[in-house]
Amino acid sequence: MRRDVDYRKYCEGIGQIQMAVFPQNEDIVTIGIDAAQKAISKIKDKNDIDLVMFATESTFDLSKSAAIYVHHFLGLKPNCRVFDIKQACYSGTAALQMAYSFIDTRTLNSNSKVLIIASDIVKYSPGTSGEPTQGGAAVAMIMSKNARTLLLEPFSGIYTCDIADFWRPAATNEAKFDGRLSAHNYLKSLEYSLKEYMYESGLTKTEIDYNCFHTPFCKMARKAAKQYFPYENIDKSLIYASLVGNSCSASLYLSLISLIDHSESDLSGKRIGMYSYGSGSVAEYFSGIVADEYKSVSFSDDNKKKITDRIEISFDKYETFCSPTPFNCKIEETSYKNIGNITLSEIKNGYRIYNLTTL
Ligand code: CAA
Questions:
Q1: Any atom of ligand 1 within 6 Å of the Cβ of 208
Q2: Does ligand 1 have an atom closer than 6 angstroms to the CB of 135?
Q3: Which superfamily does 8-148+299-356 belong to?
Q4: How many CA atoms lie within 13 A of 69 on its CB side?
Q5: Spatial CB neighbours of 343, under 8 Å, sequence gap ≥ 6
Q6: Which atom of ligand 1 approaches the CA of 180 most closely?
Q7: How does pLDDT run across 213-260, given as a tens digit for each residue?
Q8: Average of pLDDT values for 1-9?
Q9: What residues contact 155, with CB distance under 8 A and at least 6 apart?
Q10: Which of 81, 92, 127, 259 is deepest in the core (most CB within 10 A)?
C-alpha cells in the first residue's frame, strides 16, 4: 500500500509471498559463515578442505575476499586456497563447476574437499519495480569425490552473451537493471543452454525428473518451466524463494534445498536439471543425480526453523534497513532469533569487524 501498488501484483503477478531483509549486523559474510558452519559439521575432518570459494555479487570489499573471513571463523588450515568469484547470479555455479574440476584432478588426496559459499543480499532502490524482488540467503556446499547430496553429471550447456540487463556500479549498494530485457534474456539463455545440454548428454527431456531454476522471483521460474518443459508444477522447489525473495548466487541452490526439504517422495536416484542464470550474462544448464544418502546430510528442520524464526517488521523499520551502512560506525546488536553466532560489530575506515556473539 505504501508504494501504491495492488498487492496482487506481488503475490500473483511476480509470485512472491514474503521477502527477506537483513539488519545491519548481518551481511553476506555472517550469513555465509552460518551456512558453512552447518555444512562442515557433516564432514569428518575439516583439514580435508583445500579450497574455499565465496560466490557473491553483493560484496562490500573490492579487494579482500569474503572467503577469508569464512576461512578464519571456521578455523580452516592455512594451506588452503581462498578467494571470491563473481559473475552476477551465475557465480555459485561457476564455483561449483570449478570445484568439480579441482576435485577431479586430486589424485594424491582422495579426501580433498572444496567448500563453496554462495551468499547474496539483494537490494534495489526503494520505489523501483525491482524493489519487490529483493531478498537474500546463503547456501554452503561441499564438493568431494563421495557426493552425498547430488552427484554432478559431466555434461552441461552454456550460453554467454554481452547484454546490459543488470549491473551494480562499484560505488553503490543497489543494483541497476532493465527488468524486461533481463527476463527476456533469462528465457532465451535457457533455450540455448538447454539445447546444448541435450546435445552433449544425449538425454531427452523426459529423462529429467525434476527441474530447479535460478529464481529472481517465482513467476520467472514458473514461466521457464512452462515454456521449456512444459509443466508448471515446480512448487516444492519454490517454497523457500517465495519466502525469502531473490538470493542471486544462492538462488538455484536454495531451489534444490527447497525441493529436498519439501518433497514427499523419495528423490534417491532422480535426475535434477539445474538452470543457472547470471545477468550480463552467463547461463548454464546442467544436472545431477540425487545420492541415496541425501537425507542424512540435509538440514531440513533447521532450514524451516530459520524461516519460521524470522519476525515481520513494519514498513518504517524496513526503510531503516535500506539505508547504506556508514564508513565508520558501531553496529547495533539485535536479538533476532534466527541470527547466527557471528555478527558484524563495527566498521572502521570501511573495514568490517566481526564478533562471535553470545546470543
Ligand atoms: N494483479 C495480478 N497480476 C498483476 C497485477 C495485478 N494487480 N499487476 C501486474 N500484474 C502482473 C503482470 O501482468 C505481469 O505478469 P506477466 O509477467 O505474467 O505478464 C507481472 O505482474 C509483472 O508485471 P510488470 O511486468 O508490469 O512488472 P514490472 O514492470 O514492475 O516488472 C519485474 C517486474 C521485471 C520482475 C521487476 O520486478 C524487475 O525488474 N525485477 C528485477 C530484475 C529481475 O528480477 N529480472 C529477472 C531476470 S534477471 C535474473 O534472473 C538475474 C537476477 O537475479 C536479477
A1: no
A2: no
A3: Thiolase/Chalcone synthase (3.40.47.10)
A4: 26
A5: 25, 26, 30, 331, 333, 354, 355, 357, 359
A6: 34
A7: 999 999 999 999 999 999 767 999 999 999 999 999 999 999 999 999
A8: 88
A9: 197, 200, 201, 286, 287
A10: 92
- Catalytic, out of 57, 153, 174, 284: 57
So where are the chain's domains?
8-148+299-356, 150-232+256-297
Q: Does any ligand 1 atom lie closer than 6 A to the CB of residue 279?
A: yes
Does the annotation mark 248 as catalytic?
no
Ligand 1 atom 17: residue of nearest CA = 13
What number of other Cβ atoms are within 10 A of residue 73's Cβ? 20
Helix (H) or strand (E) holding 193: helix 179-201
pLDDT of residue 358: 55
Same fold, 8-148+299-356 and 150-232+256-297: yes
Whole-number pLDDT of residue 143: 97
CA 196-197-203 angle, 5° bins: 120
Q: Which residues make beta-bridge pairs with 213?
A: 275
Per-residue pLDDT, 359: 47
User: Rounded CA gap, 23 and 13, in Å?
Assistant: 28
At residue 246, φ and ψ (nearest 5 deg) are -75, 130
Does the annotation count 57 as an active-site position?
A: yes
* pTM for the predicted model, two decimal places: 0.97
Out of 3-7, 37-41, 76-80, 346-350, least confident range: 3-7
218 is catalytic: no
C-alpha cell at 12: 500473483
Greater model confidence, 286 or 339: 286
Whether domain 150-232+256-297 has CATH 3.10.20.590: the reply is no
Instruction: Let me know: does 142 contact 184? Beta carbons within 8 Å.
Output: no
Mean pLDDT confidence for 340-350: 95
Per-residue pLDDT band for 1 (boundaries 50, 70, 90) equals low
What average pLDDT is seen over the chain? 95
Q: What number is the average pLDDT over the span 300-319?
A: 95
Residue whose CB lies within 8 A of the most ligand 1 atoms, among 14, 193, 284, for a mutation test: 14
